[in-house]
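Objective 1.3, modelling of assemblies. Example input:
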Amino acid sequence: RRTYRFFEAGMDQRAKARRSLELELRQAIGDGSLETHYQPVVNLEDGKISSCEALLRWRHRERGMISPADFIPIAEDSGLINELGQWVLNAACAEAANWPDHVRVAVNVSPVQFRSQSLALNVAAALAASGLPASRLELEITEAVLIRDDAALEALHQLRRLGVRIALDDFGTGYSSLSYLQRFPFDKIKIDRSFIRDIAGPGASSSIVQAVVNIAAASDMMTTAEGVETEQQRNLLYILGCNEMQGYLFSPAIPAVEVRRLLLTHSGR
Ligand code: C2E
Ligand code: CA
Ligand code: CA
Ligand code: CA
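Predicted structure (tokens):
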């Protein structure tokens, strides 16, 4: 019985902590403690930056930097992700409107945002407010979106009709991934970091990456390798025919001012 009571108290504390973090996050959206940083994505052929991915950063007054991996799930559970997602979309489109014309911006979209029905309208609003051409916006979605239903599929087609590009994020981490590639024609597949990490090892990772690259090429999709940290990984990916890479080898996500400076000076290899 004692254990049981401790357990309940623990649950209660956790729920309280979550609730207070949720309230603080709601405030953070308006008070400047949330920022989008940008991680460059580099073309493996010419070494040029083709796009930058917007990644949320929360600088908490007392707790320091809180990882999006910790607060995005809370935002999703509470429905706050819709507001947060719109905030990121607006910020990223406004920022990218200052970049050279050939550089796209990629924005992560939560499966919860897909269920809200108004995603296409919200995306159109962010484009209109910023003046960014639709072709320079790329939305990153995960397989979880497609598991659900045909409404999600219809939302994807709506977005495509707007002219934005759609990338399948974290590819290879979900279930029966290959069937999703048939259900929707993505512009890009982002190969999950777990495969890139082991790509030079004895396991099957490099064969899996090769298979994904082949399938993508056969269906006119681009491939981006996530989490590239070493020269060896980069060279292997190039040999395997992967199109782009993203990772600490080139750059982590950096603040908007720094990315602007980088885009002005960087000209490939
Ligand atoms: P993700 O979309 O898969 O983003 C890639 C994550 O890998 C980022 O973590 C990035 O900083 C990290 N990363 C990049 N290169 C490397 C590398 O070479 N090595 C290693 N070890 N890691 C690398 P981050 O910024 O902590 O974001 C974590 C996740 O949070 C993202 O995963 C995404 O799912 C989510 N997230 C971030 N921002 C947003 C957002 O605005 N909206 C939504 N819905 N989710 C977001
Ligand atoms: Ca992503
Ligand atoms: Ca990813
Ligand atoms: Ca991920």
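The beta strands are 34-43, 49-60, 64-66, 104-108, 137-141, 165-171, 188-191, 222-225, 244-245, 254-255.
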